[in-house]
User: Fold this.
Amino acid sequence: MGEFSEVLATLNGILWHQYVLYAIVGTGVLFTFWSGFSQYRALTHGPKVIRGVYDDPNDPGAINHFQALSAALSATVGLGNIGGVALAIALGGPGAVFWMWVIGFLGMSIKLTEVTLSMLYRNTDDPDNPHGGPMWVVAKALERRGMPRLGRTIGIIFCLTLLVSTATGGNMFQAWNVGELTEEYFSVPSWITGIVLAIIVGTVIIGGIKRIGKVAATLVPLMVVLYLIAGSYVLAVNIGDLPGMFALIVKSAFLPTEAGGAFIGGTAASAFLFGLKRAAFSNEAGQGSSPIAHSAAKTDEPVREGIVAGLEPFIDTVVVCTFTALIILSTGIWNRAPDVMLDPLPEAVQTQDGWLFSETPLPGYDWVDGDKTTLVVEANENPETGLVFHRIEGVVHAGADGFSTTWDGFAGPVAPTIVGGGLYRSYIGATLTAKAFDSVAPGLGKWLVSIAAWLFAISTMISWSYYGEQGMVFLAGEKSVLGYKLVYCLLIIVATLGLVQTDTDLDNVTGIGTGVMLFANIPICWFFGYQAMRAYREYISRLATGRMGPDHPPPDLDDLLSGRDVEK
Assistant:
């Protein structure tokens, strides 16, 4: 199993190499300038489309623009917005947030392009149940150029990687995390959580895209508003620090960030790399997943849905991720002082493989066997930061005389010495964000993160179930859908039975699936993007010259949220 894990990690490292991230940025720059900064149209024209001004029940499709956007957002707005931002700051420093903004902005033009392409090539043989996505784009586009077998083959490859991502990151990874979190905080066995999740998700997805759209249209605004309200409270308490936080974000994007407390320092390059990677994972720009949801929208204007899709990275990365970042930075949890002071400090002993700190007794009894701890040490230069500070991870063990922690070895020519006089409790990802909330209102982080994790996981699972369903339709036709849905729900339970001990392998498999999706979809955008840009310019020309406009007042808000505005 160890060798298998190493293979997965190696493949994941190749598929998500920094040059792949540069390719995403280059694609975003290309379509931003090619479209004449379409982000402006997404922010100005997009809200009118979402409001239902242009909705027509006679157009082909199954759900309205608002429901399509909600379904796509429910797959992207999730645990990554809570934990991914925390990870970016912990590894890359405050400057990582700036580069998340950049990829969020550029991602708006990528989403517009890939969704417009999917709308141009979607299958509307059944107007009430359309099918779309990169697999249909490449299959139809190459068929028209006399290469049907090649198009079908690339489409199949994309669908296979889509199914891998659906089963792991879109399903089992979500269920595993919620099960672990619920068992940790509330002592509810993980398998019970799995059964409850399977019932909830199954009830929704059996009803198809119309029910998914209705649930997403309710769930997404609820979970985003809930998170933003709680975040606003924390920011209000620290409002005086916010101008300085924005200045720190911009400054750290271009200059090294000094080490301090739990943060071991970072360069502008590390801020760029980690900010870019977390934003790319968060908003999925270029991966070809959300075009599948948008292809179900009721419209006869392909570009119109592309403009709506352009709002996704803005909401996901620029709005929600920024809230998380400001909460973490303003509370100081990211560079806090040591959580536990040690006296005397342990010293490192040289071994055959490097250096090793002896087992360290821990004061107090508020520990749990298996807790993670961290030391910040000074030694030789750290190649990732250019500074001399490093992290050494430890694990807590319960003994007859209390608790102690054992440490990982440290490889380097210089003996490591402990900085700060103590150790840190390991707050990784979502836990760091939860502790930021708790630092302002004790208990807020525990409850908020737990509720958010349930809502985000459910919304992600129902949307990704539809993505996988459309992959099955392309591969094996409509008859395969029912069996696929049953297997999908069973995998939720399997993920919480304790068969998976860590999320590392699931995360690596997910990275492989989404990485190959990106390798398939970005070239599709490059080769056929000119068609999307041509359609976009034609649409904007008609809009600007008054040859197109709303021909009816916007629907009642209740009808918009429920989808009744596009029901015949």
User: Anything to note?
Assistant: DSSP finds 21 helices and nine strands in the chain. Residues 340-420 form one domain. The two ends are 55 Å apart (CA to CA).
